[in-house]
Amino acid sequence: MKNIIGRKIGMTQIFQEDGRVIPVTVIQAGPIYVVQKKTVEKDGYNAIQVGFGDVKETRSNKPMKGHFEKGGVPYKRYLKEFRVENPDEFEIGQEIKADVFQEGDMVDITGTSKGKGTQGVIKRHGFSRGRETHGSKMHRTAGGMGASAYPGKVFKGHRMAGRMGNDRVTVQNLEIVRVDADKNLILVKGGIPGPKKGLITIKATTKRQ
Q1: Which helix (H) or strand (E) holds 110?
Q2: What is the pLDDT of residues 142-163, one digit of tens each?
Q3: Same domain for 18 and 66
Q4: Could you tell me the pTM of the whole model?
Q5: How far, CA to CA in Å, does 23 sit from each of 89, 145, 173, 177, 192?
């Protein structure tokens, strides 16, 4: 299973032996622990539930405490499920670290993009601004909505000002440049969605370039 949960640490650059500079994103990948196994017979599908991120006992409620104590797993802040073909290959409490990936692997990374609040159409959709001269009062406004007597309404999906960012984003076909299994660090070529310390999911890519 080449899936893991992690946190975005930040971006830097590394030098290859031939002198090339590669921009990379540093990710703290795991460790994650198997908390629960789900099977077709009992739950209708095969999957494992994993936990990531330490949390104090006082920050967990009674149902979650019982859930972790049942499997003898330390309290975790985040829970997530990954589909697997055979859950019996995993044990409750098993630790999964960054070494499930290797240098050269291609992965898909999912995270929540940075929230930018309410923005206008220029920043949000790349509209052109109006001219600043000859008495024009149309500078950064949205302009016409394309509706007059007929149809007399604005169609759904029309690009307008509104909330920007804070969306679930997946970037595909990112190359793993380096893996530090001792420190649970993965260096991925290029940028990934989300702010620093943002929670992300790393999976083996479904589309190979």
Answers
A1: strand 106-112
A2: 988 877 888 888 889 999 999 9
A3: yes
A4: 0.83
A5: 36, 42, 15, 10, 11
